[in-house]
Amino acid sequence: MNSNNFFVITTQQGNEGIIFNDYHFGLKRTNKDESKMWACIKKLCKASIETQASSIIKMKCINPDGTHEIDKEPTASVSMLYDEQVKKFRRTNGNVSAVPVFDRMKSSLHHYRSSKQRKIPKDSSSIVGVEARRQIGNILSLPLLPRQEIQTAFCDIIEEFSGISSRFLKLTDYILRTYIAHAVFPPSFWDVFDLIGIRPKTNNHAEG
């Protein structure tokens, strides 16, 4: 196959990749002969490509129509998965053959299932990170700034978010359109900087 069948890209993180038949492959390794192994980035996908210079020399788990072979997502419990394998084993080897007890296999099966399923984040820091949470705090603090400084401060926030992940740009675009520039609710609606010096120092006024 010639070079027209794929093209090289560089991801936002600076990683090398290729696009082949509308599928994104990430670089897995570079061999001693300078050939390269690429693996599909889709979860559970087994497809891979080996390239030499600008040509594809080998493909694995890619169907003739260009689709990829994907492992079935395991949804059953570890014990149920083990019971299914025991039944298959006994159909082949009969009941006489010894079968390892479940406890001996539990850890290896759990490891396999965990490798196929995405881990659930334990706290917010593992989802957005410390720096992202700091920038969200900066957004919430915008009403405390002088009105003429809000747009400059928000541009700094956008720049910081861009360095963390492009996913946050949807959030900053929404805030920019809704609350900052040519906004539905411009800063004159929500900026409270001018009220800081004259606001009540107690909450007695709220009690009637």
From TrEMBL:
Highest taxon listed in the record's lineage: Eukaryota
Protein known as: FLYWCH-type domain-containing protein
Annotated source species: Adineta ricciae (Rotifer)
